[in-house]
Predict the 3D structure of the following.
Amino acid sequence: MNKIKQIPVLERVAKANEIFVNEIRENFRKNDIICFNIMGSPGCGKTTFIENTILKLKDKKKIAVIEGDLATTIDAERIRDLGVDVFQINTGAMCHLDARLIREALAKMDLSNIDLLFIENVGNLVCPSSHDLGEDYRIILASVPEGPHKPKKYPVIYKEADVVVITKADLLEHFPDFTVETLFGHAKEIKPDIITFKVALKGKEIIMDEWIQWLLNAKPNNR
Amino acid sequence: MNKIKQIPVLERVAKANEIFVNEIRENFRKNDIICFNIMGSPGCGKTTFIENTILKLKDKKKIAVIEGDLATTIDAERIRDLGVDVFQINTGAMCHLDARLIREALAKMDLSNIDLLFIENVGNLVCPSSHDLGEDYRIILASVPEGPHKPKKYPVIYKEADVVVITKADLLEHFPDFTVETLFGHAKEIKPDIITFKVALKGKEIIMDEWIQWLLNAKPNNR
């Protein structure tokens, strides 16, 4: 008698995600797209970071954005107002994006017209880390008001990240306990080769040149 | 022939959680404990909020704390340094606390010696909302640097909350787009009877009296 083969639910989900990821990645290579998965806490400045990057680069690169939010189109509208293609995914109660959702979004976008694709993940320092979206780079934003210990307290997401960006650096003077070196040090304890940037997008002095330079030179990266 | 009765996995988990919740709540009523589930984004100021509440009340009330973190005992050490009983739960990669974990923690604590129990949940605006811990009140912290739109963007957790507290109000002058009225307005659209407070715990003027008064008068609340 044949033995019934059982595939546990979680394994089946992981397998399906892997198939979608491979398909997404092939699509990115075929269309010369480099994709960035932007992750971070709620309110760490993900949309502002993408907006300012667009403003710097939109004459040099064709940019598109996928916005992930539980609800509302507030962030997508901000991006659309910059004249950039944006696709909104509302996850309802779901705490992260997954490859199935990204695949559905890409099917509705004109991939031949994109150089750089930014995916703004749901604001969450835990769940998005377990979900590969086919991205070339995972970028975590860590805002100054959150304090310098986030890499130690949320190590799983930092272990899987390629880049960490300190945001709201214009607020550093109001947070004497936060130093850029402390946060980068903690991040490197968890991921020694993590790439580090600091940005200030709202104060008197705008800081983002190093990030933009890196972005302009970023190569496809099949993680 | 008997029909095989199948209980789906999620239903079984929910049922087990409900049994634990009922047991926890009975234990709280028997020991005259009021329990507060403190939720909010990573870095919104949960530990600082609990610390300052302890400093105000520790001569009047017997306070204990359960700290939920993916990793480290950084927060638990801060509470312990105030001379208060604290129990650390490290969830590993898990994005929230659940009733099973709280039940295990309570089994190791001296419940006869507690008036107010604070549970600091994992920093996350999504997942903790689906997990009843047997608490009397769910309290969401919303820090000024996160912006005023969090209730609209994370409605599920606000719908289940009893209280919203704006934290880091000493930073209001640096965030001209944030007004207390806007955030409270958005929260009340989602949960009309939500109770609202504003605190400032690090600036020149400490603001927390209204919260402390409410807390001193809080009654048991079998949600």
Observations:
- The helical segments of chain A are 9-30, 46-57, 74-80, 99-107, 150-153, 155-159, 180-190, 209-217.
- The longest helix of chain A spans residues 9-30.
